[in-house]
Please model this.
Amino acid sequence: MTAVVVTFHPRPEAGEGIAAALEQAERVVVVDNGSTEEELAAVAALRDARVELLRNAANEGIAAAQNRGIRRARERGAAFVLLLDQDSVAAPGMAAALRAACADPGVGIAAAVASDPGQRKPPQFLTSADGRACEIREATAGPVRNLLFAIASGSLVPAATFDRAGLMREDFFVDWVDIEFGLRVRAAGLDIVAVPEARLRHRLGEYEERTLAGRIVPVTHHSALRRYYQARNRRWTKRLHGRAFPGFFRAMKRGARVDLLRLLLFERGRIGKLWATFRGALAGTFGRIR
Model:
């Protein structure tokens, strides 16, 4: 098992996540997107021969960085690739629990249950057996099967999955990369499973929780650029997979409305983010990515 960690201007605490990955994987490949020597000091300080640092001169996007790490892991004979990002710390035993789930040859991705330190709302997963009827489930006891996607960080992917479903879409750059990949994995006839015993501490940027009408409302404060890619790649993913997974996109349509309301009520820089969302939706509907 090789862990692939993507970094982009990492904070000093990124070394904690890489050290935790080293305790559970045979090797760690760190792929950096244009950070400085000073920013990468925490990686250099590990001084472990099992850590390999691959540096991109500029930010090539999360998907390109992941693919570079996946290819290197496979060149070195890895049968499983554990995807992580710089803000994630694997709990003890996480990788072993994921590996056990992958003993089933029908599993294409085994996913950890990730949560932000400030998160009160329990992690939820969107599931569907047939792509039409969807159900939201929490990972409480036993594996949750039939996920439609899993966030990349904390996902263990057998090498055979990449042979059947391909790598990440580099033209997506950031956002919806793992969602589109998950739908491809499901379309290839493989299952995606969440494993409650596998826990991951995963910081979601400027994540906070607000209360509205007695309900917990998660707020991400994503940048306008992220909003553009989210809107564009959501529309493009529907063009690719809408017929096979209509239930998923009905759920995403409802989620997009709720997200717009969150933006209007709680986010900073609302006007710029709304404009970026509009431009992204237009690009995803009428434009071309390549």
About this structure: The CA atoms of residues 152 and 178 lie 5 Å apart.
